[in-house]
Amino acid sequence: MQVTETRSEGLRREYKVTLPASELEERLTGELTTLKDKVRLNGFRPGKVPMAHLRKLYGRSVMADVVQNAVSEANRKIIEDNSLKLAMEPKVDLPSNQEEVEKALQAKGDLDFTIALEVLPEFELADLGDVSVTKQVAEVSEEELEAAVKRMAQQNRTFSPKDGEAAEGDRVTVDFVGRIEGEAFDGGTANDIDVDIGSGTFIPGFEEQLVGAKAGDEKTLSVTFPENYGSEKLAGKPAEFEVKVKAVAAPEEVAIDDEMAKAFGMESLEKLKEAVKSAIGRDFEAQSRRKLKKELLDALDAKYDFALPEGLVEQEFNAVWSQVLADLNNSGRSFADENTTEEAARAEYRKIAERRVRLGLVLAQVGERADIKVSDEEVNQALVERIRQYPGQERQVWEFYQKNPGARAELRAPIFEEKTVDHILGQVKVLEEPTTREALFKDDEEKEGAEASA
């Protein structure tokens, strides 16, 4: 086997591999000799099948294996001889000339093929001595705790039948048929639907127009679907709902006490409040961690500038871009609706892909240098959490991950990343800054508001 480097530009390498016909013949003969002692054919004693007959029966399929093994061997040889770290799997190009391939398969001609690959960039880890990040710390206030407990009580309150007109806070049970331009639409018809007036869970204007309704009333509600409604066919469209009021119920008073706590499986109100405060605290801590990590990654991104493997960037961009297109399609929006063009959006998301690849390479090298490991126990814990997301399908999910090493690797990757981030946080200055719940979640809520009003 002869291997010759034909290209070395940046991170790209290309090699020409030649397998002479004599070597192909030698490898084929070796494989057939091994097969001779194993194969059982009618009319021949074990090990006595003539080589010419074996070649006639199995030569072509065995030669295909010979070529595949040679390609794998060439890959290993190139990587080991040149001490390469690959960004992605190599691309192998076999001859396009069918006559050449046929001669090679018969060991009557040389087999030439090329192996193209990209290597990982080499870069020095940056000094992080001048990096400082801020961890926002929010305490759970008594007001937030009381409000959360009150919401739990209201969400689980009971309703009693009520004579007379429906008012704010009441529950109205209705049948309805929705129409646009006089035509009923998919999903617009339902029976025995509970509408809590003032909950804001229905189309704007729907709940408000039920104020004053009584059991037995039939009303026509005029509403307009929001511009950002999930269905493209309905978004922004005016509609009318023919509603029949079947019942009106008023909420009963809810006592926030030990009995209410027991309804949630807690032995007392004090224990319920402790559990709720702990849950809110975990939400605060998770949000604080997200913001801290983003700030750290921004600082790392500013520290590095090196060539990126184009294949990795393209792979990451394709994944991001597919999600962008899917989101636009599901929302019925266009690039124009987002105040941009497809060209500008592609450029923006390619930069995002480049950032992800760059930071991924940096974190990988930091983790490798720090000898960060992810234990099987940690992966199994992550798998248990994943399984919990699919109630009723636990066995199928477990078996899927047991049979697919690649899927288990996807569980391992984020654990490795978080441990590496923790390692880096130990190298930089982390300043704690007291904040409020509103400030901690401000950016996320502003983004949600902008998307809702877009």
Class by SSE composition: alpha+beta
Helix proportion of residues, in percent? 40-55%
Mean pLDDT: 89
Q: Tally the structural domains.
A: 3
Intertermini distance: 62 Å
Largest sheet features: 5 strands, antiparallel
What is the general shape? elongated
Question: How would you explain this protein's 3D organization?
Answer:
- The structure is a single chain.
- This protein has about 450 residues and is an alpha+beta fold.
- The protein has 3 domains: about 1-120, 2-Layer Sandwich (Alpha-Beta Plaits), CATH 3.30.70.1050; about 160-255, Chitinase A, domain 3 (Roll), CATH 3.10.50.40; about 260-305 and about 370-454, no CATH class.
- The chain is built from 13 helices and 11 strands.
- The chain has helices at about 20-35, 50-80, 100-105, 140-155, 260-265, 270-305, 310-330, 340-370, 375-390, 395-405, 405-425, 435-440, 440-454; strands spanning about 1-10, 10-20, 90-95, 110-120, 130-140, 160, 170-180, 185-195, 220-225, 240-250, 430-435.
- Strand 1 (about 1-10) and strand 2 (about 10-20) form a beta hairpin.
- Helix 4 (about 140-155) crosses helix 6.
- The two termini are about 60 Å apart.
SSE blueprint and pairings:
Layout: E1 2-9, E2 12-19, H1 21-36, H2 51-82, E3 91-93, H3 98-105, E4 111-118, E5 132-138, H4 142-155, E6 159-161, E7 171-180, E8 183-196, E9 218-224, E10 238-251, H5 258-263, H6 269-303, H7 310-331, H8 342-369, H9 376-388, H10 394-403, H11 405-425, E11 429-435, H12 437-440, H13 442-453
Parallel strand pairs: 5-11
Antiparallel strand pairs: 1-2, 2-4, 3-4, 6-10, 7-8, 7-10, 9-10
